[in-house]
Structures are given as structure tokens and as C-alpha cells.
Amino acid sequence: MPAEALDPKIVLKLDGYLEPNVPAIVHRHDVFRKWKDTIDQYEGGYDNFTKGYLKFGLNVGPSGEVVYREWAPNAIEAYLIGDFSEQLWGLGNHPSSHKRRGMCHSPRLQIKSASIASYVDSQTYRTQISMAIPSGQRIERLPAWIKRVTQDLNVSPVYDARFWNPPASERYTFKNARARGISTSEGRVGTYKEFTQNILPRIKNLGYNIIQLMAIMEHAYYAVAFGYQVTSFFAASSRYGTPEDLKELIDTAHGMGLTVLLDIVHSHACKNVLDGINEFDGTDHLYFHEGAKGRHELWDSRLFNYGSHEVLRFLLSNLRFYMEEYHMMYVHHGIGAGFSGGYHEYFGPGADEEGVVYLMLANDAMHTLFPPVITIAEDVSGMPLLGVPVSQGGIGFDYRLSMAIPDMWIKLLKHKTDDEWDLANIVHTLTNRRHGEKSVAYCESHDQALVGDKTLAFWLMDKEMYTNMSDLSEMTPVISRGLALHKMIRLLTHSLGGEGWLNFEGNEFGHPEWLDFPRAGNNNSFHYARRQWNVVDDPVLRYRYLNAFDGAMNHMAGKYGWLEAPQAYVSLKNEADKIVVYERAGLLFVFNFHPTNSYTDYRVGVEEPGKYAVVLTSDEKRFGGFANVSLGGEYLTTNLAWNNRANFLQVYIPARTCLVLAK
């Protein structure tokens, strides 16, 4: 069915300030419609087009034959080579296949299963495609669609392609329907199985319902941040285990009611030639733009040509592959440029329209094929319509990350003491999100944990985390302040900042120190490439207080549904008293950020009359507090308007404490 034309009135209803840019938005949508119609007309629609991984690369046919196909227009002839035989299985004798829409030369090889039986069964042999190109040169590459690559550093840092086709007895079978790397405490790479056994139960017990897995798509450089330099897009990283191990992890998570998201990196690719897809057929413009346009100077990587029919097949099939093969949902990376805030910048010549249209196609295709899918944009630009459905002129993401929030917290902790904090600005940053576009809030992520920066806990408590985090030592002012503000910052962000909450593993308990992957600059040390679960499991260390509060916060959100509720109504931002008060999901939140002042009978406004009880307070003993506020303590409203609310009640709110009250 042809995609419908965009009605400009829909865009204006969403945001009237977009009126000068409506022609550009309509044009962008028309380009999307043209691509979708092309896919429908020539490829049989999304369902067929996104199954490229069943046609390209190495696949086993219904009779057991192994079929290899590759897109390499610049190749004159090609051979499949490997350890499995001294024989070359050649593609050169097959005529070039000139097909529609840019599929100009598709070398195709069929190998009978009898001739490579040991290869199919053992999964131990390396393979490459060897191609002759017009210059007379012969080049060897890893198959672009390969589903398994491994690295042996004793031999070479270059990855080897391997055909993954385990016998039926060794293939993992999913048992559970989808639910709606550095994870060990030791200095080494963790495994999928260890994550399944040791980390999934922690996540479940803390009340989280979604896991985002990072650095899964194979990447040659472990030291580069979190797998953002992908070399083999269809291969789950072998450094953590086998594909079957990853399937077990995901299926176990589903059995716990946890949805699993994949961190998809389609914004760029590693520039590696020998074990990547760069210069795959000897040209620099097969999958990527030619010349400078195809290079990301900051990341030193390659940029995809999203206007290519076959590149779209590759990328959209990549999304489908992880959905089908691993039963994942997925999360996207989006815009990476800085903008001044003028709407014209998002729709002018500086915007990559082909890239935006690809994101529209990706969201539309995945939501069409898998309606429950969750897509999240990581966007630093504030791009309008990012979280609006494609049918309404948007790009189609379900959520967008609120990336300004962690930046705000880190700047405050770096440059100001808490008595200098501007509460109005904090509240503005937490609530400043585009109407109708759902956001995921967070205080810190892997970015803040990396070497060169500090986690919230480390900014708050610094060197005292090495000496005073034991209950056997004195509760110093630094530790007391750090524990209190860590809890308050997280609850304020969780309950006020969006429609979702994100935590980077370990930060829930105030993980000490930083992340630093093994690299030449640290003598390839794994010392800081770990999560120190031992500190939260130690019954005398104060990390357990922060961990317990994190769990209570998540379970409270699940019980009352504040993340699903409309945006909070903030009734008070008192700079002198350092008090913030707001209501959301029928709950009343009261925060006292004052470092020394506690308030008795402090008057706070609330819309609904009745009896309110304290259901959560950061001052509980089990959270490392002083028990100055009683859990379950009750307060009656007075029928007099206060701070634009119909009623008020009077509470006791100690310094550096937060309360949540419910009727």
C-alpha cells in the first residue's frame, strides 16, 4: 500500500513554530514515501526487503547446501577461500548479474554440503572472499554479512570470519516470549553466561524492566568507547561467548519479564579494511559516501550512503536480523551534531536528509513488522519531531534520551556547591522536553563514568570513598552529604525528568572510580574495566544503602506509575529555603536541598484533599539516613489554596532529604 502524503496541518498542530519549515518537512516525508513505494514495488515490501541476511552471506539451503552471495560491483571475479580446503570455490565463472535499482553485480556461489561437510559441522575453519578488481589487484575480505568472527591476538589483531552453523543439538531454542562486557568485578572481559547468571538477577531485583546491551555488534577495537566502531554488523561479539550464549542471556531475561534492547550503531562504521566493510570491493564508496563526505573526522570512521538501495537493504536487514535471530528489541543512535536551537538548522542544507529518511524507514519498517518494538534516539541536538510517528511528519522514535540532564548535573557538581544550586534552572532542565515526545531521563551514563570524568558518587565523595564508606568508620560530613545528594538527585531526575529512566550498571550503588578500557596508554590494563559488585555485596559498606534506595525508587515507580503519568505539576521552587515541590501520578514529592536547614510544619500545596502518608523517604535507616522522618507518617490537608493548588498540608522536611507522600 502506498504511503500517504503528509498533511501539513498535522505538523502545525504539533508545533506551530515549525510553520516556516513545513515545506522542508513535507519534502522529507515525500522522499520517505518514494523509498517506501520503491521497496513495495521492486522488493515485495518491508517483509521481503529486510530479509537480506537470508540471501546474502553464507546460508544453508533446504537441502543442506551452503549458498554464498555477496554484493561487490567492482569485483571482476571472486573466490571463497578458507582453511576448509585447498580448493578455491570460484565465483568468477558466473556471469555478472545486472539487476534493478543498483544491484549491478552480485557474485553468487553455491557449495554442495558434501564437499565441505567438515567445514559445516566443525565451525572451526576460517573463510574469506578473494576478489580480483579492475586494477589487477587481488584483495581478500571478510564476508560483509558474516554472522561470526573471532580474534586470536596470539596470531594477529585482525578478525577471522567463521561460518556459524552449529548442529541442532547445540543450537539454543528460545523458551520465553519477548517481554513488554564489563560486567564482572574481575579485571577481564566478562561473558554472556556470567551476565546471565550473576547480573540479570540483580537487575530484576532492583525493579528494572528493560536492559540495554551495548557493544554487542562485533568491533575490532575494545579500547574504543563501548563498541561504537563496528566491523561486522551481523556478528555478535565473540569476545563474550558464542551466539548461542547470547540467545540464552536474552531468553533468560525474557523469562524474568525483562525486555532486551540492542544498542544499534548505524550512524557510522569502523574504517578497517581487512576485517570491516570499508573498501569491501576495492572502492571507497560501496557502503559509504565517496571521499570526504564519507568520513567522520571526529570518530575517524566511515559514513554510510543512506541514499543507496543496497545500503538500505544491508542496514534494514541488520535490524531485522537481531529481532529475528536474537529476539531483541533495539535502540538507535541518532543525531550527533550541535545546534544553536534555530529550527531552520534542522531542515536546512546542513542536515543529512538521506540519513534522516533512513531513520524514518528504519522506524516505520520495524514498527510495521514488529509492532511491540521500542526505538530510542540518542540525540544531542534537540531535533524536533524525533519522537513523533512517521505518519505525522516525524522520524518515528518511541523515546528520546534527555542528554542535557546528565550534563547539567556534572556541571553543577564540578563548579558549584549545593547551596549555590539554582533550583529553578534544575527544574527547567528536567522538565524542558518537547510536548508529545516521550523522553528517557538519566543522571549519568557510561559517558560520565569514562576516564577523564567522574561518576556522581565520585564527584560527591571523591577520595573519601576509599576510606570512609564502611559502617565501621565515622560518618563524615563528606560521606553524609554524598549519600544524601546521590539519592535526591536520582529520585528528582527519575520522577520529574521524563517518561523513562536509565541507569548505567553500577551507578545504582554509587560505583567508585571510573571506567578505562585496556589500551596502550594504561599498559592494556583491565583494572578499571570492571564493575565492582563486591562493594555493594559487602554488608558493612555503605554502597548497599544507595543500592537499596535505587530498588525502592524503581519499585515505587512501578507501583504508582509516575513514568507513565502526565508531566508533573511543579508548585514550588523556593531558592531561599532550597525546597522543590511537585505532584505526579497522584503522589506529592517534597525535596529539601538546603545543606543545614530542616523545616517543621513546612506548608506545601497539593490539589487533591485528604490524608497523605509518607511512602518513601531518603532518610530511612535502610538507605543510610537518620530516621528523622517516619515512614507511614500521616498528614491531613487544609482546604485553603496555596501555591496555585487547592489545598495544603504541613510536613517536617529535614535538610538534604526528600519525601514521597501518597493518599
TrEMBL record:
**In the Enzyme Commission scheme, what number(s) does this protein have?**
2.4.1.18
Q: Name one Pfam family in it.
A: Alpha-amylase_C
Q: Pathway involvement?
A: Glycan biosynthesis; glycogen biosynthesis
Q: What catalytic reaction does the record list?
A: Transfers a segment of a (1->4)-alpha-D-glucan chain to a primary hydroxy group in a similar glucan chain
**GO biological process annotations for this chain's record?**
glycogen biosynthetic process
Q: What class of enzyme is it?
A: transferase
Among InterPro entries, the record links this protein to: A-amylase/branching_C, Branching_enzy, GH, GH13_cat_dom, Glyco_hydro_b, Ig-like_fold
Q: Which residues form the Glycosyl hydrolase family 13 catalytic domain?
A: 174-534
Q: What is this protein called?
A: 1,4-alpha-glucan-branching enzyme
- Family the entry assigns: Belongs to the glycosyl hydrolase 13 family. GlgB subfamily.
GO MF annotation list:
1,4-alpha-glucan branching enzyme activity; cation binding; hydrolase activity
Q: Which UniProt keywords apply?
A: Glycogen biosynthesis, Hydrolase, Transferase
**So what does this one do?**
Glycogen-branching enzyme participates in the glycogen biosynthetic process along with glycogenin and glycogen synthase. Generates alpha-1,6-glucosidic branches from alpha-1,4-linked glucose chains, to increase solubility of the glycogen polymer.
Please give the superkingdom of this protein's source: Eukaryota
GO cellular component annotations of the record? cytoplasm
